[in-house]
Amino acid sequence: xxxxxxxxxxxxxLDEQRMREICLFTALTFxxxxxxxxxxxxxxxxxxxxxxxxxxxxxxxxxxxxxxxxRAVRLACKKLKRTSLAGYTMYSTCEPCAMCMAxxxxxxxxxxxxxxxxADAARHCxxxxxxxxxxxxxxxxxxxxxxxxxxxxxRALFTHPNMQRAFRTWKVGKRKPGN
Length: 179
Prior knowledge:
disordered C terminus, 5-stranded mixed sheet
C-alpha cells in the first residue's frame, strides 16, 4: 500500500504527520459526551496548509450523513465559497464509506488518505463494505486513494475505553454477530 512520500529513517512522512494530527484531534472527542473514532483533515495538496478538520457528528446532530469527511468537505467549501476542492487532499482516520468517498469525488479532491480500514471499523460498528478505491475506480472523476497510513494508531481510536462504551449505546443498524 502507498504511504505517501518515503521518509528518512527515524522521521515521519508528510502523510504520517498529517494522519497523526487528525488522530490526535479526533481523540479529543473521548473527553466529550459523544466520542467518535472518525476524523477528517483537508489540506492544500501543494503547500500542506490546513484548510479544515472535522469529526463525526452523527449522534450529536441527529444526522446520519454527518460523517467527518462530509462535514470537512461542507465546511471547507463554505470557507472557500466554492464547490470545488481541486488542489486539496483529505486525510481520514478511517477509510471513507461509499457515501463519503462519492462526496470526495464530487468535491474534486486530488487525493484521499486513510488510516484504519472499513474492515477495522466493522469490528466495532456496522459498515457499508464497499472499499473507497472501488468507488473511485467506478467514477468518472479522478481521485487517488492511498492507505492505510498509521493503521494501528487509527485502529486504536476504536478500542479506547470511552469509545467502546459509546459503541454499546449506538443502536441504529445493529446486526447480530456473524450477519
